[in-house]
Amino acid sequence: MTSLQKEVSRRLPELNCTSRYDERSGRLNIDYEGTELLSLHKNKIVFFREENHQPEERLAQYYKVNDLIHKAAEYVRAYDAAPPMEAEGVREFRRLASYNNGIVMAGREDKYHGYMFTTWIESDDRKHVEVGDYSPDYEYVKESFITRSGLIDKVRVFSDEQLRKLYSCLCYTAENNESLTYGQERNLKEMMWQIANAVPDIHAAESPSNASQQNM
């Protein structure tokens, strides 16, 4: 299997999916509830059959798995191309990104547990690192890197918890404020759509009816 196929196979249980590797074709076949959902070829092409994506729940599951594949492909590709860290004690990590104020982003792979990422403060000679911010979540560590380095002001970045609370308020307003104009309602829906695409599974936690019940 390729590095990407191995990582996807490790992470599939997060989505209640299993995998089967076909040596002859080089495909990683991904199953959901006992039926093939899609397959990932060794050249990173995703194959699927439309008839396997009914009912709608299976189609939603396909999009989740496909999103996982694309996100994993990003950090696997970055890791495979990255040089090793030079600091003593962390040479099993690879340098994924660095900024000229001494902030470095790095990652390492464990064949049993997958990838671990971190940001550090690095000495000018690259021989020492300190104050690590570790996580297996690549998206979190990217955010840590851009905020610690000052590329984006931290006060301009919302946490997932803050976005969930904001989404709940928007849902409640959209459902209960009858004085909204057409333009205001459209703006609310656009913001809700943007937040829903940024925070995993937010629909399950916060629907308009749930939001209104929580605020009764």
Defining key terms:
single chain; 4-stranded antiparallel beta sheet; 3 domains; 23% strand; disordered C terminus; 216 residues; alpha+beta
Question: What does this entry look like structurally?
Answer:
The protein has helices at residues 3-11, 56-81, 138-148, 160-176, 182-198, 202-205, 208-214; strands at 17-22, 27-32, 35-41, 46-47, 94-98, 103-110, 114-122, 129-135. With 216 residues, it is of the alpha+beta class. Mean pLDDT is 87; it is low at 205-216. A hairpin with a 3-residue loop joins strand 6 and strand 7. The strands form 2 sheets. It has a 4-stranded antiparallel beta sheet with strand order 1-2-3-4, with helices on one face. It is flat.
Whole-Å distance between the termini?
Answer: 53 Å
Global outline: flat
- How many E strands? 8
DSSP helical segment count: 7
User: What sequence of helices (H) and strands (E) makes up the elements?
Assistant: HEEEEHEEEEHHHHH
Write the layout of secondary structure elements.
Elements: H1 3-11, E1 17-22, E2 27-32, E3 35-41, E4 46-47, H2 56-81, E5 94-98, E6 103-110, E7 114-122, E8 129-135, H3 138-148, H4 160-176, H5 182-198, H6 202-205, H7 208-214
Antiparallel strand pairs: 1-2, 2-3, 3-4, 5-6, 6-7, 7-8
Brief synopsis:
It contains seven helices and eight strands; from the N terminus they run αββββαββββααααα.
